[in-house]
Amino acid sequence: MAVQFILGTDPNSKRKVLIDKMYEQLKKDSKMQMLYLVPDNVKYEAETMILQQFKDKDERSKYSGMIRLQVFSFSRLAWYLLQNKAIYQKPQLTDSGLAMLVKRILQEEEENLTIFRGASQQTGFIERLVTLFSELRNGKINPTDLFELKNPAEMEESDEDNDFTRKMKDLSLLYNKYDEALKGKYVEREDLFQELIKYFEENSQKFKHMTVIIDHYEHFSAQEQELVITLAKYTQNVQICLTIDAQTVYLNNDLNNLFYRPAKTYQQLIHELGAHQIHVSEDFIVPSNVNKLEEVHSKEMTELANYWMESSGPMTRADTEKYRNKPYENIECWAAEDTATEVSHIATKIKGMVATGHYRYNDFQIMTRDLENCALNVEKAFVENNIPFFIDQANTMSHHPILEFINSLFLLKKNHYRLDDVFRFLRTELFIPDYDVLDMSEGAFQTQINEWRQKVDIAENVALAYGYKGNDWIRNKEWVYMGIELDQENDLSDYDQKIQDIANSVREAVRDFIVPFTDQLEEGRTNREIAGLLYQFMEEIGVIGQLQLWQDQLIQQGELEEAREHEQAWNTFISLLDEFVEVLGDEEWDIDLFVSIIETGFEEATFGMVPPTIDQVLVTNFDLPKIQPKRVVFLIGLTDTQLPQVQGNRSLLTDEDRELVESSLSSEKYLAVSELESMANEPFSFYLAMLQAKEKIIFTYPISNNDNGENRISPYLTRLKNALSLELQFKQSTTTTDPLKQPKDYLAFIGSKMHTYGQMLISLRDAIDHQDTPAMFWLGLFKKLYQPENSRQRRLINSLNHKNIPKPLPENLAEDLYGKDLYLSVSQLETFYANPYSHFLIYGLRLKERQIQELSPIESGIFYHDALDLISRQLVTLDRDLATISKKELQNITSDIFQLLLESNKYRLSQSSYRMNFVFNQLSKTVENMVWSMIHQAKRTKYRVNKTELVFGQLGQEKGVTGLALPLNNNRKLHLRGKVDRIDTFQEGDQLYAGIIDYKSSDTTFNYQSIYYGLMLQMITYLDTVITFSEDIFDQKAKGIGAFYSTVKNHYVDLKNMGDKSLEEELLKNYKLDGLIIDQREVLEAADVLLEPKESSPIYNLYLNKNDQYTGKKILTEEEFNLLKKFNRDKIIEAGNNILAGKNTLHPFDQRKIKVHTPSITGPYRAISQFDALLPENNYKDVIKLDKDDFFDYLRSLYSNLERND
């Protein structure tokens, strides 16, 4: 029964001495049993290290000594000795289970609390309370210790007014209930420790020949300290290793002491050992000839450690100067552009050092305090450079599909089958209809999974496009895949019908399998009932089977570690479900509580790790240094926020509370380390991290952070840099073409072949962009690396000459895309003239933007067209004239038409939500106002609606009257198709006159500039078609009236500026038709029969002057109309020839100069075209302004020249 402290300033050389002693003791005493106790995170490493060191001494020692030497952590020792005891048969609650228990206690004791009444509703309060209770139990502090506590500063106040006292009484009450709830029913880590202590007391004879060595601990909790005292009582001897300077063991109250924490631990143990009358042998100070750091570390690493020790206390100038201006070749400081650059340079550094043949990958260690974020950059950079690595961090289960399955499943009920929730659930792929018939043969399984994914994607597209949600998933009613752009349901193509069927199959799967379960989640049920239903449901729909299939598939692929994760995740879920039933089973079902418990449980749970292989770079946490140092260490991310790191106090106890509690406790009871002590320990943590390096150490930090701000260098690193006169090396993300750079400067960018290729291409690209000569280093490397026969390398090199210019299509490919003869709409031709590349994407590749449940301007326009068409047809059926119809008759007609439209499947969108219902009501009012304008226009004009929605050519599955067919090169033809919104006619004697009206939902003005550039072909083409095929349409030859735009929208009148005009007259002006009218006296007079001299028509762009002459910029003579018609046809033919020639240039108009919509520039296809006006190859078209005179002068000149040439 004796204790000895083994002290030394370097844990590595101290450990070497320790293992030598262990070896000699075991060899000397054949009866001796030895326990080597270390923290969990280094247990495996400690075993392998001891084995290797024993083996180095004696090949046979691994068979003799290690049988009597066992390596444990405290918790593993408890399992080893108590695994067959009754205590291990009791359930152990996870943190989530403990949180459930605390929540129940808070609910039960709510009325008895003062300070904490209602606190359970605060975010994070329960978790903080669980953490505090664990800290109290670890500190051996019981409820009565808290109950009597008072704040001396508040002694004169009554208990009711004393906040600290009330807080302690609340904590005492809750802590007592917590202890009672655990006692005898559950077992926690603290209970195992107490049972382990009891086991040693009851079985002391077993351990009288046992030596216990405790290493790698710098601090013990009160429970751990009690266990150490117990071991000292009942074993032969205990040796406790501490990293400390023997001269400072008594400076346990000096926070500036580098070894403050181990010094405090030393003094606490000495005090408790004395109190228990346990003999303490003389400290074993690692002899100076061994403690010299050079035994493990290089000279430079030794000087680095010595400097940090000395500089933590007072230093003379001479002490400081001895470290300056030395050539420290193996100590480096880097400042990198950002974290990605920091890690990338580390990767190339490691790659380069391994390439020398003097290093292996397991000679390197990377240490950081931000392991989670660092891991992402390490994975990217190290994979790119083909460097094997091991990240010493267990992955959380928070991203496993089971958690997403549970979250989304219960959100289906809570949010009534909201679209996002449905597809979150389906995409977990833990529910697949007919999972039991999945074929696990090679390739078949993945094919079936891909088919299900495609079905889900299709169902989502349909649901998004047509607003299927909520009850649409529940009711037994088929979804209809019919868009507003289709006139009838029978217009559905075979492809559309297939899409509809697939979407309905997914809907039926949800309705048949999922809805019955969510219907059972009713209020009034208990948590136990719902948990049972959930397990049964998951079993029935094949969740367990699907997880097993995933596991089997991964095993077949050799991914054994990943395969185990599915089983671990399922076991975690079952444990959480068991705890939920155990602790809260009889309470009323609470969906939010259950989901939060499962979510928290999965976030806290981690997958088991497989130890690193022999040759990998180790990436580990700065605060968890390993037992065995590495030849080269990178300490990274050393910013002023990471080192020193401020540990905020998240405890329910303030710093003042802690002082008061600590001061009232006996010496064997104490709380965890305070925030102040944690800060005081930062230099020591940095010291231990530095001692991980044997030969070389590189300190790095990123200049910029992810929030676009700048980091500041750690003051610790600044201190080292200044003291050792270290150069701060700047690390760029990419190399530059600076010709002054030496070849050695480029070596930092050399890694694997592909990584190096990437850096080389960046450098060459930079030189090309700046019209500069690349550095000779990169040119030489290019000649060395480039292999023309390697297709991937060719593609990479060709990228240097890449310009954002689409390649013209070969004529045979253009023919495959568009056909030998063209069948086009006029809007397609206008798209081509707006930008040929947009035309290629939309009509060549047939790309479509994903539809969502929104009413687009195009769909609004279709509603206007349908409504106006049906109203016009109804008036014809009733043989009523617009000019004489009454207001009431019109209201009845429009009301019936709107009801008919909105109840159709085509416009089911109107019933999908209150918002859409309101939108369609507004559209209906717009149509009513439009009809009002048509009535008042009819009272002034002889023109009457003759045809509406007249189809020409083949439009979808509808064949209309004959359309224009124009000749193209190589004996090909261009067939035009389209739909004329409205044809107005009037009869003058035997002559019929016809004009066309095109409805627009936004203001559209006829202008000659747009005609010239091919952006306004539609109106002239439609009029040309109607006149050309008038006999087919009207059974008689017709002459043209003109072509007009009619804007369908609500107009507003400024009443202040009306003057003497009537409201009706002012409103009518807002509905004026804009377009071209042919100069024929009878046509002009019929246009507005009420027009008086010196007046402008409120319905057409006409002015009647005092000489009874009609004037206006948009009145065309017969000659002008014929020129325009010919030009229009020529533009169509030109476009057709260019389309079949494969023209797809990216050459758009600048929308600031001409009004045109270009999908590949400002629309949804911008990401594909990547048009950038700053690139020299991407330019807007030059645009010239044209008025009527300029335009027709151009046409006369054009066609007179052509006639002369003919």
UniProtKB/TrEMBL annotation:
The keyword Isomerase does not apply. Residues 5-287 form the ATP-dependent helicase/deoxyribonuclease subunit B N-terminal domain. InterPro entries: ADDB_N, P-loop_NTPase, PDDEXK_AddAB-type. The keyword Nucleotide-binding applies. It holds the Pfam family ADDB_N. GO terms for biological process: DNA recombination; DNA repair. One of its GO terms (molecular function) is DNA binding. Signal peptide: none annotated. Transmembrane segments: none annotated. Residues 824-1064 form the PD-(D/E)XK endonuclease-like domain. Keywords: ATP-binding, DNA damage, DNA repair, DNA-binding, Exonuclease, Helicase, Hydrolase, Nuclease, Nucleotide-binding. PANTHER family: RECBCD ENZYME SUBUNIT RECC (PTHR30591). This is DNA helicase/exodeoxyribonuclease V, subunit B.
